[in-house]
């Protein structure tokens, strides 16, 4: 029997069936008994997968968002876009490979793409700092966004990072300041901006390219003020409590939509985006083209005003129809 591929523990029943199906597919074609067995196993796989992925816990969602085979920014550029020309450097310090930028074309729209890139192999991952950008990465992003504004091109941002790089060098070069500056500049850019969280949306590293007219999240991605491990380390002094922190943070796509932190949830293929890159890319393209069609005809003044109001509405926790609680306290 073939070795069962590695994956999250909750996926093991699915992986075992996938191995059985692959073994049967190697038999001589035309064997009716084998084909019927394959059909039965595929139906069983669909039932099991639907049950598992229909009831994922927040911590399991994090594991899916971090899956090693999940499509990254470059995968979407290859599968969903017609053309891409990469642009390098921030004109100040260097070229941060954790942030990928460049001109692209999707259907009739010419756009600027800015996205985190983690890398597929270990060598690529170390080159890209595992998707954790330095200040020069955000300065590169800002430079290319200003270029897009100059040429009146929409901007598409793909967010996939555990957080901004936390090293001493990054802090010395102004990590917090450059993220704040990037958020401010994005709020003022006079061209449509679409942001999509495709995997991890961690902390300020995600917010640095996350201010847009449309903010969407993939079904099994997450978007959080802090990683579950970071939260557990602060509150319970141990990363072993990460699943408990994930439950408390309310960062899954369902929570984000209910809290109005995101505008849309993009459905993933059955079993997650890592199982079918092409189908996921087709759904991504459909969403982007539809959103670009809705946004590109709007006046820039209207875009900026709506973008401002969109983010101002986030975080409300007091019912404005009720009396002021401070007045009640004073009285």
Task: Note down, in words, how this protein is organized.
The chain has 331 residues and is of the alpha/beta class. The chain folds into 2 domains: 47 residues; 251 residues, 2-enoyl-CoA Hydratase, Chain A, domain 1, CATH 3.90.226. 48% of the residues lie in helices and 15% in strands. Strands 1, 2, 3, 4, 5, 6, 7 and 8 form an 8-stranded mixed beta sheet that branches. It is globular.
Secondary structure blueprint with pairings:
Blueprint: H1 12-25, H2 32-53, H3 58-65, H4 73-80, E1 83-87, E2 99-106, E3 109-116, H5 122-127, H6 135-150, E4 155-161, H7 168-172, H8 175-188, E5 193-202, H9 203-207, E6 214-218, E7 222-224, H10 228-235, H11 242-249, H12 253-258, E8 264-266, H13 277-295, H14 300-312, H15 325-330
Parallel strand pairs: 3-4, 4-5, 5-6, 5-7, 6-8
Antiparallel strand pairs: 1-2, 2-3
Helix pairs in contact: 1-2, 3-11, 4-13, 6-8, 10-11
């Amino acid at each position: 029997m073939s070795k069962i591929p590695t994956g999250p523990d909750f996926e093991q029943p699915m992986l075992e069936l996938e191995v059985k199906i692959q073994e049967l597919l190697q038999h001589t074609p035309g064997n009716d008994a084998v084909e019927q067995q394959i059909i039965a196993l595929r139906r069983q796989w669909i039932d099991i997968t639907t049950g598992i992925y229909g009831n994922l816990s927040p911590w399991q969602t994090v594991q899916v968002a971090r899956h090693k085979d999940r499509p990254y920014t470059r995968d979407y550029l290859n599968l969903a876009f017609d053309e891409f020309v990469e642009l390098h450097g921030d004109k100040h310090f260097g070229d941060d490979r954790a942030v990928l930028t460049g001109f692209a074309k999707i259907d009739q729209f010419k756009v600027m793409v800015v996205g985190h890139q983690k890398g597929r192999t270990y060598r690529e991952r170390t080159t890209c700092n595992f998707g954790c950008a330095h200040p020069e990465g955000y300065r590169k992003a800002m430079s290319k966004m200003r270029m897009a504004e100059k040429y009146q091109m929409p901007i598409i941002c793909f967010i996939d990072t555990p957080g901004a790089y936390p090293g001493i060098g990054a802090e010395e070069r102004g990590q917090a300041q450059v993220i704040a500056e990037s958020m401010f500049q994005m709020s003022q850019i006079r061209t449509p901006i679409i942001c999509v969280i495709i995997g991890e949306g961690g902390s300020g590293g995600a917010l640095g390219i996350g201010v847009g007219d449309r903010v969407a999240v993939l079904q099994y991605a997450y978007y959080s003020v802090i990683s579950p491990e970071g939260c557990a380390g602060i509150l319970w002094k141990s990363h072993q409590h990460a699943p408990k922190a994930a439950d408390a943070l309310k960062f899954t796509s369902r929570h984000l939509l209910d809290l109005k932190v995101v505008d849309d949830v993009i459905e993933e293929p059955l079993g997650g985006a890592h199982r079918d890159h092409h189908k996921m890319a087709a759904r991504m393209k459909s969403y982007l083209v539809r959103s670009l069609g809705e946004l590109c005809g709007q006046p820039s003044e209207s875009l900026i005003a709506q973008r401002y109001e969109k983010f101002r509405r986030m975080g409300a926790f007091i019912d404005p129809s009720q009396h002021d609680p401070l007045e009640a306290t004073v009285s």
